[in-house]
Amino acid sequence: MKIKSKSSHLLALTSAALSMPAFSAAQPVETEVSVRTSLYKEENVPTDNIIFGDDVRYDIDIHQFSILTPVGEKWSLGFNAARESMSGASPWGTVADADGAATLIMSGATISESRKEFSLSTQRYFNKSSLGIEVSRSKENDYEADAIVLSTEWDSDNKLSTLTLGMSYSKDKITPTDAILFGRVLEKEKTSQSYSLGWTQILDKTSVLQSGIRVTKHSGYLTDPYKLRDARPDERLEWSVNFRYRKFIESTNAALHTNYRYYEDSYKVRSHTVETAWYQNIAGNFQLAPNLRYYSQRKASFYLPIDDYTLPLTTNQSSDYRLSTFGAFTVGLKAIYNQPTWAVSFSVENYKSRGKYSLTNAETEHPALLSFSLASIGFDFRF
Fold first, then answer.
1. Which residues contact 346 (CB under 8 A, 6 or more apart)?
2. 94-145: per-residue pLDDT in tens?
3. Of the four listed, 27, 139, 325, 333, which is most buried by Cβ atoms within 10 Å?
4. 346 with 332: CB under 8 angstroms?
């Protein structure tokens, strides 16, 4: 579980495409196969920020495969597989140094794990709508997750609008390693339910706008068992709203992609994400796409920069840097070469987070805030 959240978010990041289809209620006419490999590397923690443990943070190798194929005249079938190999050290907690500032207790750099995830989906297409179901399973040595997703879409009569509805349910089981040695829980479970509503609107012949809202409820064991002192509420309610705008600019033969997302939850975390990318077509079927993303977050209500061992074990507290106040910038570049039946892409991103980047004043900056690089290469085939 110490890297469950990291793995899930990273997999979503490497899987996400900046393109936004206007309609997906229509059956695919070709079989589509995608293969992608990504390398993720976190910068080491400055040794001045550590009182115990290793400064080497995570390196993750990600391999992904997906296929989507039409079946008959009214169905499609999809399969996705991913494997991640991870190694490095992670923060266990914080204590005060001689000056009263937060300093890190890190694990050793011997953590080495792998994660596998598989999903199978099918979709039934009607005249102006579709109905889909997807089941997935994720497994690593100390974590298992099973999920089911239901989705439906309707196209308007004029084919200019699409309404989407989705719901999902997942059940996760955590069995921490070295539980007896470190006094961790032996086995715990949590469940998650998520509901989404989306609307896609073609504004004119060169622009599309999509908006959506999502509500998610997590219940059960939400504490991180690998932290030395961590206690979180057994329920977390999240909601978010997002907007995505696509505009093709004929005079420059390029497309502008702009995204905005607002998020808040019952932990009192609030965040804003703004992203923009410019897809420039170049002679010879090439595309270059620079992108910039900004993220700002306000801390959770029970976040503490330094673990407080005087509080009862049942009192909510966490020094997890992911619950602190911080902001982050991501700068990236993607290159794409397209052919009628195949395409290849290569992308690089660099991410840096700091307390002072947040829109909200960070009283203290967490010493474990991340900086990382991500490089990906992907191949897509259509037949």
1. 334, 335, 375, 376, 377, 378
2. 999 988 999 999 988 766 789 999 999 999 999 999 999 999 999 998 999 9
3. 325
4. no
Q: How far is Cα 190 from Cα 197, in angstroms, rounded to an integer?
A: 24
Q: How many CA atoms lie within 13 A of 21 on its CB side?
A: 11
DSSP codes joined into one string, 54-123: -----EEEEEEEEEEEEETTTEEEEEEEEEEEEEE--EEEEEE-TTS-EEEEE--TTEEEEEEEEEEEEE
Residue whose tokens read 């910038």: 329
User: Where on the phi/psi map is residue 72: left (φ > 0), alpha (ψ -120 to 50), or beta?
Assistant: left
Domain ranges within the chain, ordered by starting residue: 4-382
Cβ 206 vs Cβ 247: under 8 Å: yes
Contact at 8 Å (CB) between 59 and 88? yes
Residue corresponding to tokens 């999920």: 147
Three-state DSSP at 16 gives coil
User: First-to-last CA distance in the chain?
Assistant: 40
Number of Cβ atoms within 10 Å of the Cβ of 292: 13
3-state secondary structure of 269: coil
Look up residue 232 and give its two tokens.
């979180």
Could you please state the CATH topology (level 3) that the domain comprising 4-382 is classified under: Porin (2.40.160)
Query: Which pTM does this prediction carry?
Result: 0.91
Burial code of 360-380, b = ≥16 C-beta within 10 A, e = fewer? Answer: eebeebbbbbbbbebebebeb
Spatial separation of the C-alpha atoms in residues 127 and 116, rounded to whole Å: 37
- The conformation of residue 252, written as its DSSP 8-state character, comes to T
CA distance 89 to 53: 8
Strand (E) or helix (H) holding 6: helix 4-15
Indicate the pairing of strand 75-88 with strand 371-382: unpaired
pLDDT, tens only, 223-267 = 999 999 999 999 999 999 999 999 999 999 999 999 999 999 999
